[in-house]
Amino acid sequence: MKIALDAMGSDARPAPDVEGAVMAAREFGLTIILVGDENKIKAELAKHNTTGLDLPIVHTPTEIEMTEHVDAVKSKKDASLNVAVKLVKQNQADAFVTMGNSGAAMAAALLGLGRIKGIERPAFAAVIPSGDAHVLLLDIGANAEVKPEYLYQFALMGSIYANKVMGVANPRIALLSNGEEEGKGTLVVRDAFALIKQSKLNFIGNAEGRHILRAFADVIVSDGFAGNVMVKTMEGTAETLIEFIKTEIKKRPLAVLGALLAKPAFDALKHRLDYAEIGGAPVLGVDGVTIIGHGRSNAKAVKNAIRVAKRAVEGNMLEAIRNGLQ
Amino acid sequence: MKIALDAMGSDARPAPDVEGAVMAAREFGLTIILVGDENKIKAELAKHNTTGLDLPIVHTPTEIEMTEHVDAVKSKKDASLNVAVKLVKQNQADAFVTMGNSGAAMAAALLGLGRIKGIERPAFAAVIPSGDAHVLLLDIGANAEVKPEYLYQFALMGSIYANKVMGVANPRIALLSNGEEEGKGTLVVRDAFALIKQSKLNFIGNAEGRHILRAFADVIVSDGFAGNVMVKTMEGTAETLIEFIKTEIKKRPLAVLGALLAKPAFDALKHRLDYAEIGGAPVLGVDGVTIIGHGRSNAKAVKNAIRVAKRAVEGNMLEAIRNGLQ
Fold first, then answer.
1. Residue numbers in B near A235 (CB within 8 A)
2. Chain Cα centroid distance, residue B43
3. How far apart are alpha carbons B301 and B273 in whole angstroms?
C-alpha cells in the first residue's frame, strides 16, 4: 500500500510530518510518498534511521499556508497538497494524508478526486474521544447549509466509516438536535430524522450537545454549522477549564504540591484528550481516501493519521460507500 | 417592588424556592409573592425567620412538572406558573421568576404576557461565566429556525439586557458562526451580519464555539438550534471532564492526598462555574420581566434569580427594548 503524505502540512513542517512517515513506514510496512520540498524533506530524513524503508520523495516547489484562502488550491497547482491528491487520482497512491489547512485540503480533494457517484455533498468529520470509545461527528464545516438527503448520506457514510475504520460492529447513529425527543429541531432535521429512521442504519434518535463526551452514539450527524459549533465549543471548554485549573493551582504553594501528587490522574485525562492518539479524520464522499490531521500534530499524530488512512484502504471504505448508496 | 415567584418550580420545590424568597426579601427589601401550594409553602416559611418580611402567598391547586409537555400550560390554567404570570399581566407584580420547566415557562410568559410590540420572536437566553465576566448567549432554544431580522432583534435585546441588567457599559455583540471571517455561515447568518453591522450596536463580528468561555464578547447571538448545541456542549464537556478527573483521582491513594491539597484551586473553579451565582436568565421580547432558573437551583440560586429580575425592573429593561425598536 502506498500513502501520499503532504509533507508540508503541519505547523512545524516538515519535521513531524517526516518523522511520522518514518514511524508509519516501519510500524505498518507501508510505502509513504513524501510530497514537498525535496531539500527540506531530505534534511529531516537524515535525522532518522530509514534503512529498509520505502520513503520516495515527490518534489513540489510550493505549499499552501495554514492561513491562506481556499482559492490558493486553484492558483497553486504545484502545491504539495494538490500534487499529493494527484498521486491518488492517478492511482500512484492509495490514500492522501495531510496535516495542513483543512479548508484547502478538502477543496483539493474535492477538485482533484471528485465526488463518489451518487454522493450529494462530501462531509468533513471529527473523531472525538467519548467515554471509553470515540464518536465520529460529521459534518463539522464543509456544508453550513444542508438538505435532509445530505444528512441521510452523512449518516450512511459515517456508519460505514465507524464500521470499516473505527472497528465498531453495528454503529449507533444519532442526529444532532436541540432536544432528544423526536420532533425537535429544524424542518431539515425533522425530515432527516424520518429519512434515517426508515433506513437500515442503526438509528438511535436525536443527540444533544451534552452527549458529546458520553459515548451516547458512535456517529453524530449534523449540518456543518452546528457540528462546527459543537466541536469548537467542546475544544474551547476543555482548554479553558484545564488552563483555569493550572492558573489557580499555581497561585497556591500547597496546591502545587497537591497537583504533583495528583499528576498521574491528570496525565490520564491528558492521554484521553490527546489528539495524537486519533491522528486524523476523514473527508467522506470524495472519490479517494482523504485524511486530514491537526496543524499542531506531532510525529505520533502523523503516524496515527497514516494508520487511519491504511485502515480505510484495507477496509475498502470507498467501495462500501458505493455499495451503500445502492 | 413586587416579584411573583413560582414557588413550585425547582426540582426540590418548594424548599429552595421559599428559602431563596426569604433571603431575597430580607437582602433586597422586596415583596415576594409566593405562588403555589399554600400548605407546603407555609410549612417551609415556618422553618425561617420571616419577621418584618413581606411574603404573601397566592394559593394554586396544581403545578407543571419538569417533564410535562409544554401543552400543559394551556390545559392547567391554575398551575403556579400560569398564575404567577397572570399577576404580572394584571400589574400585581413587576416580574415573574421560576425555576420550573423552561419550555412551559416560556410558553406561559408568551401566552400570558404577549410579545413587546414590534418584536418578531422572543428569545431565551443563558448567562455563562466567561473569563472574569459573563456572556449572554441567545437564543438557546425558543427558535430553532430564524430569519436575519430575528437575529438582529436578539442582538438588540441582548445588548439592552447586558447594559441594563448585567451592567456592561457598551456591550460587545458577536454573531455565532462556523468561522470568524465575515462571509462565514449560512445565508441567514450572513444576512444578519450585514443587518447588525449597519446598526448602532457595538458589533465585533462572528464568534466561534471556542470563544464561549473566553470573554470574547458580552453577547453572542445565535439561532435557537446552534445556541442550544453550544450551551449544552459546554455544560456537558465541563461536567464530563470534572467527573473524569474525580474518577481518576479516586483510583490513586497519592492522588487523593494531592487532590485534598489542591482543593482550594478546584473550589475556585467550582465557584466560577457555580450556576447559583448567576441565578437565572431572561426570556427577552415578552411584555413582562421573565426570569427562568435551573430546576436544580438551591436557595442561593433562587435569591440571585430574584436579584436578576429586580435589576431588570429597576433598569426599565422593557421600556429600553421598546425604545430600541424605534
1. 209-210
2. 28
3. 13
Contact A210 B263 (CB under 8 A): no
State pTM to two decimals: 0.93
Q: Nearest-CA neighbor of A3 among A52, A56, A39?
A: A56
- A179 and A135 fall within a common domain: yes
Question: Could you tell me the CATH number of the domain that includes residue A204?
Answer: 3.40.718.10
pLDDT tier, A215 (very low <50, low <70, confident <90, very high otherwise): confident
Total structural domains in chain A? 2
Q: Which residues contact B320 (CB under 8 A, 6 or more apart)?
A: B160, B163, B164
Contact A159, A200 (CB under 8 A): no
Closest chain B residue to the Cα of A263, Cα to Cα: B255
pLDDT of residue B244: 86
User: If you count them, how many residues does chain B have?
Assistant: 326
Q: What pLDDT does residue B267 have? A: 84
Residue B235: give the domain boundaries.
Answer: 128-276
Alpha carbons A5 and A94: distance in angstroms, whole number: 11
Per DSSP, A100 falls in state S
Q: Which of residues 198-257 of B touch A (CB under 8 A)?
A: 208-214, 224-226, 228-242, 244-245, 248-249, 251-252, 254-255, 257
CA dihedral B301, B9, A180, B112 (to 10 degrees): -110
